[in-house]
Specification:
Distance between the termini: 86 Å
Binding site for ATP: 517
Low-confidence stretches: 1-21, 71-75, 111-123, 426-475, 534-544, 609-613, 615-620, 659-669
Largest sheet: 6 strands, mixed
Transmembrane segments: 433-456
Pfam families: PAN_2, Pkinase, S_locus_glycop
Strand order of the largest sheet: 1-10-9-6-5-2
Domain Protein kinase: 489-733
Shape: globular
GO cellular component, one term: membrane
Helix content: 10-25%
Number of strands: 45
Number of helices: 15
Number of domains: 4
């Protein structure tokens, strides 16, 4: 073996995460130098003098669900490892395996022993090999760009999966024309994000400004650009060696900036390009639908398709996509016709797959469908504006309408085996009295109708609740099919369509207006519908049931950000500004991953873009009402901001704000919003946090949420931040000054002081 110069610098703080829950290796440290004649084997490692980096042999590991791992044991998770050993350098002190560089990434090492003349890991030098042959990360002082003299181009290539560092499908590089590009490595290669040629130098200033706008990275990272006859490259330096920052091209093809959170012991993504996950070509694989609003599961299979293989999906490699549960039935008769019993199933509001073929003589939709059926290789068709398009083979790049970046209204008709669709339909029709719940499940960022019928049991004691919440809020009510037929006048007034059914307007016997979703054979079946309704039935505020699990602070913080983002969508991204008017914990639904959805738009007000206010009647829930509403003036979206402030207070404390402690006979400083702003001014916000968290929380995030909440509760609406500013602050992209004490809260304090004299 030739002499291998490996010099490990203490300043290498750039790395990629394998997302495991254990360090790369617990091997014995052998100092920072491997002398001539010594061997580096499994169980050994070299550690830099400051202890920050280690070199040795390791295996990638990842925890999976039992089903994905192919086990039938009672264990809920199992750990899978890379098939062989890898030689690499990792961040030694971080408890999550975080590699800086991996040698020979295309294949593992069978004989896990390294014999070289001399190997020295120094705290002051450079890792020469990794600087020339990068993996999926960009190291500080590393160049991204071409050498004009040698033709060598420094670039990064994503890894294949969480346990396989082999070349993945995406690369980031600077071309000889000076353009920064994110490119798929498929054939043909596709550029899905770029910075224009000759403009790379102009990227440095906004990048540095972006870093300085976030308190977590302010003064930490500095980008530089060089363009001369020899080289064209982009680079960066870390100004604080104690910080841990990473720039990497993710498995999914996003270029991400991550920062290590010591308190959470995990990587947090500060910025990603492209921001929309689904822009990456074929990111979910064939026969899938990508939805950028369904975090963390952006990808899902089309109806009657299943993930292949399931283990690869959990390891981050979704390139296999989905496979048919039942093969299509088609026999070729001659070159132009085929015999088939196959049927078509519509997938609505999606972008159509790429590589369509146009059928010129299909002038009607029935002709288009027939043309596809007559070709055994045809897998889908679409008919729009008198244009017939068909697809052969795998369907790639289908994206769901998210109401934001993707707004397609196209319908894709996928080809299914008749018995698949028949079994799917029979599951719905098997019982005429199948449970039909008066609710519309949120789909995407903003539901057309988000109506969850939660009724107090004494309102309709003639029916049995599907789910007993165990608290004071009642549960979801089950109705007989015939009752819903009467309520909707035999489903005569259709309001729209949802993810797997149609929505109809109806009214109960007490004149309560409802929306009823009826399964009608769309892309999800009865089992999925029941599961989703059951999940929503179990969603409740953490204080409505003594047996409810305690949400961790990190979960609460993500809920706070999620609610603010969804309010931002309502206020800024719709055709008309939508003021929800009733933001409170009961109207914030959480899915299985605790992603929040805003529900119950029955009190919402709509404001045209040419107007800033709307006059509306007194509405909403006591304890969450903004002061201007009580005075009867026209309202603005700032009433939602005020309500959000109240919700943020409850997220911190884990209990109600308890307005009842401020009755006419008793004014107490115990009223939590009063406590919160007093403690914020005293620098003692940790005492406000829910004691059930037992001290496990991020103090900086708590202070941020508390400060935002106090600004949201200002009496004067003009003193409250815009919802966009709230989102930026919660995401750590902007800072706020110390808020003043609102007059109403100050009055409570004064009354309390007077009462105590």
């Amino acid at each position: 073996m030739p002499l291998l110069y490996v010099v490990l610098a203490a300043g290498l703080i750039f790395f990629s995460s394998t997302h495991t829950t254990a360090p790369c290796s617990t091997a014995t440290a052998n100092g920072d130098t491997l002398a001539a004649g010594q061997a580096l084997a499994v169980g050994d490692k070299l550690v830099s003098r400051n202890g920050k980096f280690a070199l040795g042999f390791f295996q990638f590991r990842q925890s999976l669900g039992a089903a994905a791992a192919g086990t039938s044991t009672g264990d809920t998770t199992t750990t899978v490892s890379s098939p062989g050993w890898h030689l690499g350098i990792w961040f030694n002190k971080i408890p999550v395996c975080t590699t800086v560089w991996v040698a020979n990434r295309e294949s593992s090492i069978l004989e896990s022993e390294l014999n070289i003349t001399q190997l020295k890991v120094s705290r002051d030098g450079n890792l020469i090999i990794s600087f020339d042959y990068l993996t999926d990360v960009v190291l500080p002082s590393t160049k991204i760009g071409p050498n004009m003299l040698t033709g060598f181009n420094w670039s990064c290539i994503s890894k294949k999966s969480l346990i396989d560092p082999a070349f993945g499908l995406h690369t980031v590089e600077v071309g000889t024309d000076g353009a920064l590009r994110l490119t798929s490595r498929s054939s043909p290669s596709l550029v899905y994000w770029s910075w224009p040629p000759g403009k790379l130098g102009e990227l440095v200033q906004p990048l540095n400004a972006l870093m300085d706008s976030d308190p977590r990275t302010k003064g930490l990272v500095k980008f530089t650009y060089q363009d001369n006859k020899e080289e064209v490259y982009l680079s960066y330096t870390i100004m604080d060696e104690s910080a841990s920052v990473s720039f990497l091209i993710d498995i999914s093809g996003q270029l991400k900036m991550n920062i290590w959170s010591q308190s959470a012991e995990s990587w947090q993504t500060v910025h990603a390009e492209p921001s929309d996950f689904c822009i990456t070509p074929a990111v979910c694989g064939p026969f899938t639908v990508c939805n950028s609003n369904s975090d963390p599961l952006f990808c899902d299979c089309m109806e009657t398709f299943s993930r292949r293989p399931l283990q690869d999906w959990e390891l981050g490699d979704r390139t296999g996509g989905c496979a048919r549960n039942t093969p299509i039935d088609c026999i070729t008769i001659n070159r132009s016709t085929a015999s088939s019993t196959d049927v078509f199933h519509p997938v609505a509001h999606v972008t159509l797959p790429y590589d369509p073929r146009r059928i010129e003589d299909a002038t009607m939709q029935s002709n288009c469908a027939e043309a596809c059926l007559n070709d055994c290789s045809c897998t889908a068709y679409a008919y729009s504006n008198s244009i017939c398009s068909v697809w052969h083979g795998e369907l790639l790049n289908v994206k769901q309408n998210d109401g934001n970046a993707i707004t397609s209204q196209d319908v894709l008709y996928i080809r299914l085996a008749a018995r698949d669709l028949q079994s799917f339909s029979k599951a719905i029709k098997r019982k005429p009295g199948v449970i039909a719940v008066a609710c519309i499940v949120s789909s995407g960022f903003l539901p057309l109708f988000m109506v969850l019928l939660i009724i107090w049991r004494n309102r309709l004691n003639r029916v049995m609740p599907v789910h007993n919440s165990g608290g004071n809020g009642g549960g979801i009510i089950a109705f007989r099919y015939n009752d819903l037929c009467r309520a909707t006048k035999k489903f005569s007034e259709r309001l729209g369509g949802g993810g797997f059914g149609s929505v109809f307007k109806g009214a109960l016997s007490d004149s309560t207006t409802i929306a009823v979703k009826r399964l009608d054979g769309a892309r999800q079946g009865e089992m999925q519908f029941r599961a989703e309704v059951s999940s929503i039935g179990m969603i409740q505020h953490i204080n409505l049931s003594d047996n409810a699990p305690v949400l961790s602070w990190s979960t609460r913080y993500q809920i706070a950000i999620g609610v603010a983002r969804r309010l931002l969508y309502l206020h800024k991204s719709c055709h008309k500004c939508i003021i929800h008017c009733d933001i409170k914990p009961e109207n914030i639904l959480l899915d299985a991953s605790f992603v929040p959805k805003i529900a119950d738009f029955g009190m919402a007000a709509f404001v045209g873009r040419d107007f800033s206010r709307v006059i509306t009647t007194f509405r909403g829930t006591a304890g969450y009402l903004a002061p201007e509403w009580l005075s009867g003036v026209a309202i603005t979206p700032k009433v939602d901001v005020y309500r959000l402030g109240m919700v943020l207070m409850e997220i911190i404390s884990g209990r109600r704000n308890s307005p009842e402690v401020c009755t006419s006979n008793s004014y107490h400083v115990a009223y939590f919003p009063v406590q919160a702003i007093l403690k914020l001014h005293e620098g003692d916000v940790q005492s406000l946090v829910d004691p059930q968290l037992h001290g496990y929380f991020n103090l900086e995030e708590v202070e941020r949420v508390c400060k935002v909440a106090c600004w949201c509760l200002q009496d004067n609406e003009f003193d409250r931040p815009e919802i966009r500013e709230v989102v930026q602050v919660l995401e750590g992209l902007q800072e706020l000054e110390m808020p003043p004490m609102p007059r109403l809260l100050a009055a409570i304090v004064e009354r309390s002081d007077e009462a105590s004299m």
